[in-house]
C-alpha cells in the first residue's frame, strides 16, 4: 500500500440507499446536492462522490440531464474532484448505470468489482409511513436482489469510461474476493496503477463491520498490489467513523457522507455532509495527519484534471 502522506477525504453526498423519509437533511434536488457538495469540499473533502435523484420524489436516477443540473455548479464553486457513480440505483441496467459517467466523462468514476447480494430491506421496517410511494417497495425488494457486475460488464465499463473517457476509478470492493477480481484486470493490463481501492464494510451481503476484516482486507490488497494502490475505507451506518479512523491508523484514506451514514454520532442526525467531513478532519488532524487538497489528490491518483471533463 502507498501510505498516504496526505489523506484524501472523499464525501459521498446522497447515494441511492437512503430515502427522503429517513432524514430531512438528505440532499435530493440538484440545488441541494450542489450546495452540500460545495460545503463538503470547503470542509476538507478533496473528492465528492455523486449520485442524482429525481427532484420531485428523491428516487435515484442516472439521467445525465439531471447530473448536468448540478455538476457545473460544483465545478464552478469548488476545486473538488468529481466522482460519478456507476452503481446507480437498485434495479437499473448496466447501460442505465453507466449513462452519466459515459456522457459526462468525470475525472473519477466508481467501479463495483463484483456482483453481490445487496440487502437493505431491514430499513423498511423502521418506518410506519414513507413520504413517497416508491420508498418501501424499493427497500423491501432487496431481500431478493443481486447487484450484478459480471467480468464482461466490468471490462466493458472499464474500457468505455477509462480508455474512451479518460476517467480513473474508485474501485469499490465489498469483500476480499473483489480484490482478486481487480487483480485479474490488472494482470490483463486493462487498468493501470495507481489504484484507488475503496474497501466497503457493513452492507448485508458484503464483508461485515469487524475491524479484523479490515486488517485482512488490507493484507490481501498488499499481497496483490504492493505499492501500486491507495487504500480508502467506508463503513455503513454507525460503523462509519470507527472504520474511517482505523483506516487513518493504517496509513489509508477515508470516505464519509450521507450516502454511507445519516448520523454524526449516536442518535444525532448529521445536518449536512460537511458536518461529517469536519468530524473526520478533526480526528485526522488530532492524529497529526495532513488533509490532501483536491490538487494533491489529483497528483496522487493521476487524474486527467478538471479541465478535461465532459461538463
Automatic annotation (TrEMBL):
One of its GO terms (molecular function) is metal ion binding. Keywords: Metal-binding, Transferase, Zinc. Its cofactor is Zn(2+). Its EC number is 2.-.-.-. Gene3D superfamilies: Aldolase class I. It holds the Pfam family BKACE. This is 3-keto-5-aminohexanoate cleavage enzyme. It comes from the Bacteria. InterPro entries: Aldolase_TIM (IPR013785), BKACE (IPR008567). Signal peptide: none annotated. It is an enzyme of class 2 (transferase).
Amino acid at each position: 500500500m502507498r501510505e498516504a502522506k496526505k489523506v484524501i477525504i472523499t464525501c459521498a453526498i446522497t447515494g441511492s440507499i437512503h430515502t427522503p423519509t429517513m432524514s430531512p437533511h438528505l440532499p435530493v434536488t440538484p440545488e441541494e446536492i450542489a450546495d452540500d457538495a460545495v460545503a463538503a469540499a470547503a470542509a476538507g473533502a478533496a473528492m465528492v462522490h455523486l449520485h442524482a435523484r429525481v427532484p420531485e420524489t428523491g428516487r435515484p436516477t442516472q439521467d445525465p440531464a439531471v447530473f448536468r443540473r448540478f455538476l457545473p455548479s460544483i465545478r464552478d464553486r469548488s476545486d473538488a474532484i468529481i466522482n460519478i457513480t456507476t452503481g446507480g440505483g437498485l434495479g437499473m441496467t448496466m447501460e442505465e448505470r453507466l449513462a452519466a459517467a459515459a456522457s459526462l466523462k468525470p475525472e473519477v468514476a466508481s467501479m463495483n468489482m463484483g456482483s453481490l447480494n445487496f440487502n437493505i430491506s431491514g430499513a423498511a421496517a423502521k418506518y410506519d409511513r414513507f413520504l413517497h410511494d416508491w420508498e418501501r417497495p424499493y427497500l423491501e425488494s432487496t431481500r431478493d436482489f443481486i447487484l450484478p457486475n459480471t467480468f464482461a460488464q466490468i471490462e466493458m465499463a472499464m474500457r468505455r469510461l477509462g480508455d474512451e473517457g479518460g476517467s480513473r476509478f474508485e474501485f469499490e470492493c465489498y469483500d476480499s474476493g473483489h480484490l482478486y477480481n481487480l487483480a485479474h484486470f490488472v494482470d490483463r493490463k486493462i487498468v493501470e496503477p495507481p489504484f484507488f481501492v475503496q474497501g466497503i464494510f457493513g452492507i448485508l451481503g458484503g464483508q461485515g463491520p469487524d475491524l479484523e476484516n479490515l486488517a485482512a482486507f488490507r493484507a490481501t490488497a498488499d499481497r496483490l498490489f504492493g505499492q501500486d494502490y491507495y487504500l480508502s475505507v467506508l463503513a455503513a451506518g454507525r460503523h462509519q467513523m470507527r472504520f474511517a479512523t482505523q483506516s487513518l491508523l493504517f496509513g489509508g484514506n477515508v470516505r464519509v457522507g450521507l450516502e454511507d451514514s445519516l448520523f454524526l454520532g449516536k442518535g444525532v442526525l448529521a445536518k449536512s455532509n460537511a458536518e461529517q467531513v469536519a468530524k473526520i478532519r478533526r480526528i485526522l488532524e488530532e492524529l497529526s495527519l495532513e488533509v490532501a487538497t483536491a490538487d494533491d489528490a489529483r497528483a496522487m491518483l493521476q487524474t486527467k484534471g478538471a479541465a478535461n471533463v465532459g461538463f
